[in-house]
Amino acid sequence: MVALSRGGIALGVFPWHHRSVSRNRILIANRGEIALRILRASEELGWEPVVVYTEDESESLPVARAAQAVALPGTGPAPYLDATMLAKVAADQECAFFHPGYGFLSESADLARACADAGVNFVGPTPATLETFGDKAAARALALKTGLPCLEGTSAATTLAEAEDFLAGLGSGGAVLINAMSGGGGRGMRVVRSPAELPKAWKRCASEARRAFGVEDLYVERFLAPARHIEIQVAADRHGELIALGERECSIQRNHQKLVEVAPSPTLSPKLREELSESALDLARAAGLSNLATVEFLVAEGEKAFFFIEANARLQVEHTVTE
């Protein structure tokens, strides 16, 4: 087991495949800020980072900084979404490790499998864990089985008629949150407070989800307001050891996009902080997590209750806040 860290927070907890490769060579399959951070951490450890880039990124800072850079065919994000090609590049460069960073294919079970098939260690959770947390219905079902509270909602891909029935069942003053079954980042999400708004919002959410994630499946849950959004950073190795690295307060949002994050939360009581951390660890343990994940919760006003939202089985954009 090999750990890569910078400034006190793990950028990855690595497995080890037995293959004739350079033991400390790592492919960085990303760009921009996260590619540079992984590059710096690798260099500080005396590792050999290999950066990939597209034709329109030849003058980017990671490429300029790296001792070794490999050009990918094409431009824009498409080359970073080709799992088979990226895994082959890692193998051809005799890399022992493959770091996906965040975004792109960082939560792709298919990429994790492609790396395993190529004999390269994927820096991330196992394919099984990625599949569980990548399907919000499966993650929700696991959370309930583990004993985590969840808001009332539908338990699978939902039709408009089912969403209308659910909203009606909430009674006067009830509201639902439409949510995409896959992905995140606020896309495919809408709050609906009246039956008349639902068909138009449903169509728009399905369209957003299809464009962003390739899947238009949606589900609904009861909309909770006022509430605070708290997420717990978790790290785990492949021997069953887990640790919660504290929480991030991310309640300041616009259109379900986080604008400001603070760590630690200035408003959590010590008791609730411990409860959220233990709940996150319980879920991560139940999912067989290895590597990193962030478990997200809603906290009701006055800390009267908290509810599981979702889990992201990857390095978060916000990892710098925890660091």
Work out the helicity level: 25-40%
- Rg calculated over all Cα atoms: 20 Å
> pLDDT below 50 for ≥5 consecutive residues: which ranges?
16-20
Q: Write the CATH fold name of the largest domain.
A: Rossmann fold
CATH class of the largest domain: Alpha Beta
Identify the strand order in the major beta sheet: 5-4-3-6-7
- Provide the CATH architecture of the largest domain: 3-Layer(aba) Sandwich
Task: Describe the sheet with the most strands.
Answer: 5 strands, parallel
The pLDDT mean sits at 90
Whole-number count of domains: 3
Q: Could you say which structural class the secondary elements and strand pairing correspond to?
A: alpha/beta
Description:
- This protein has about 325 residues and is an alpha/beta fold.
- The protein has three domains: about 1-125, Rossmann fold (3-Layer(aba) Sandwich), CATH 3.40.50; about 130-150 and about 225-320, D-amino Acid Aminotransferase, Chain A, domain 1, CATH 3.30.470; about 160-220, ATP-grasp fold, A domain (Dna Ligase, domain 1, 2-Layer Sandwich), CATH 3.30.1490.
- It contains ten helices and 15 strands.
- It has helices at about 30-45, 60-65, 85-90, 110-115, 125-135, 135-145, 160-170, 200-215, 270-285, 320; strands at about 1-5, 10-15, 20-30, 50-55, 70, 95-100, 120, 175-180, 190, 220, 225-235, 240-255, 255-260, 290-300, 305-310.
- It has a five-stranded parallel β-sheet with strand order 5-4-3-6-7, with helices on both faces. It has a five-stranded antiparallel β-sheet with strand order 13-12-11-14-15. A three-stranded antiparallel β-sheet has the order 9-8-10.
- β12 and β13 (about 255-260) form a beta hairpin.
- The longest helix has 17 residues, at about 270-285.
- The chain is globular.
- The model is unreliable at about 15-20 (pLDDT under 50).
